[in-house]
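Just wondering, does anyone understand these tokens?
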Amino acid sequence: MNASEFHSLHATADSANAETEGEFSPNPNAFVATLRRIEIGVAADGQPWPELHQLLGRRMQLANADCALAGLRVVQEILLAAERTRQNGEPEEYLGDRVMEGLMMACVALTAQATERLQVEE
């Protein structure tokens, strides 16, 4: 089997970018670094959940719900703009029924994600 020509999605140490040999110093704005911050439980503003009295697992659930709700707002704003364009714009400017259905499905999925994360596990 041939080796893949694509690099791994996981960040690897690069001596050109490391401060010392074997130490990885990612740019905090880099895509992979941002994904890692999201993975460890940052909220929609990119910061850890501020309520320190919560257990770590609960803080991660609240951060995930916060991100889902922020995403839901963005999708709903796009959906609202698309609907206003359908009502008031030219017919060729309308996004189409399939796009509108996809946006609605995204709203349903994000709402379900936020709802599930906000439920208290007993």
Notes: The mean pLDDT is 78. The chain has two domains: 1-39, 52-118. The CA atoms of residues 53 and 59 lie 9 Å apart. The longest helix spans residues 56-88.
